[in-house]
Each structure stands twice: as C-alpha cells, then as structure tokens.
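User: Structure tokens for both sequences below?

Assistant:
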Amino acid sequence: MKNFAKDRGIPTLVFLTKIDAYDPDLLVEDLTKAFKSKRIMDLMPEVATLAGVGGTKDVFPVKSFSHEYEPNYEVGILLFRALEHALYAATDYLEAVGTEATIIEPQTPTQVRATASWAAEDAEEMSLVKGQLYIVESPDEDGWLKGKSASGSACGYFPAMAAEAKYRQDMV
C-alpha cells in the first residue's frame, strides 16, 4: 500500500498512537508537552524511517481515547491536530493532481505469469505452463480469466489462482 501511494505522489502520514505508553511521564492532563518529550522526539525519526515517510513532519504523536470515559480536551487536541494535517495533505494532493476528480476503475492486468502448471479439462479452457506469460483478455465469473498464451498459439479460460498479475508499467 505504501508503494502504491508513493508511486502516485499520495502523501503518507503516520499517527504514532498511545504516546503515553512510550513516555509514562506524560500525564493525560498535560499531553501538550508531547512535543517536548525527549522519548517521543527520539522515537519520531525512527518511526519516520521505518514507515518510509518524508521525515518527522509526517509523524503525529497522538494518544488514543483508551481509558477515558468522557472526551478529554488534551487527548482530543493532539488527535485533531493530526487530522487537520491529514486534511491539509489531502487538499494539497488533490490540488496538485487537478481540480476535476476522476474515478479510475480497476483494470484487468494485461499479463499474468503462471505460478503453477495446469491442464485444461475441456475445449474452452487453456492449459498453463508454470513460469510462462499469458495475456488476459477479460476476467470471468468465479475466479477464472479468459486469455491467450503470449505467443498467441492457445486461448481459453484458466483459473486466476494459477497465475500472478504482471501489470504493465504504463497502466499504473
């Protein structure tokens, strides 16, 4: 998922939850000091690196409403701040890609590689050879694909579970 977003320029943010577990010195009544906590500040670059985001500016420490029975302003302010930045990032992204929203329908992969050999059982089916490429023409009901061999010498239906998608780069 991270690579999908990264390849498309979609901003990735990390919500570092349960910060009170990382720094027990933080009191619920004083969570505004989260950004002054050495433990939290030392953890943020590590989390940013592990998540592969742009840096600590994309990591937001928050405390979950896990033990509070009533809404707590101090807990909520960190969460709302993180959500506000997420909305800013989404707005910036949408403005960068254009003002008109386009719905992109999922596409059938144009090529698949057989992950297992499979023998056709009737004339409408096509046998697969493990490791060979096949061109998908359309998906069918019940997990079958209609396609042809990469050489074009055979065509028919084959089980989707016996093939692995190989998406062309220009389709993404």
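Moving on to the next sequence.
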Amino acid sequence: MSSSENTTKVHVPAAFPTLKKISKKGYYVRLVCKKGRGVAVSLHRALESITSFHVQNSNLSTVDDDFVLTFALDVTACGFEINMTTLKLWLSSAFINEGFEFNTFPSH
C-alpha cells in the first residue's frame, strides 16, 4: 500500500470554487473552506491533482476560521475548448476526491 493510499481523507465543508476569467485561456479560482487538522494538506493535494491544466501560481491564507485558496489557472495546455461551467465541475471533482464536501450549489 502506498503512502497516498494509506492516508485518511478529511471531510470538510466548503463553498464551490468561484471562477473569474482573466484572459482568453486564464482563470482566477477561489475556494473557501473551514480550517481543521489536515485541511491544508488536502487543499494542496487537490491542487496538485489538477494535471489537465497549468496552475500558474497559488496562495493559501487564513481568514478567521477559514482557509482561502486562490490560484491562477491556464487552460491552454488541455488541448480542447472548455467553458466556465465545465471547468468549475472539473475543479470541484478534484477537491471532492480529497474529501471536500460542497455545501452550496455552483452558480454559473
């Protein structure tokens, strides 16, 4: 069993990621979730699992009892057209796979 298979995933309530288009193929992404043991590690694992796109930069900060993860994403490398709704669902699945549970429905 590898070390990644042996880790326990945290279950963290979070808001769906918000996206803003910042260039023809670039997006700014923001995700807010509650702080807790192992949450920062899970956020970074989810971010590292996004291999279909190029994460240009990222920042993890705290505001009160929340973590705020922001990152810039370049979708040029994916090789196909992608709309904001599909991208939001794709990104959400990366966080769900790390144990995040979204407590609001995504807005378009």
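User: Anything stand out in the second?

Assistant: The longest strand covers residues 54-63.
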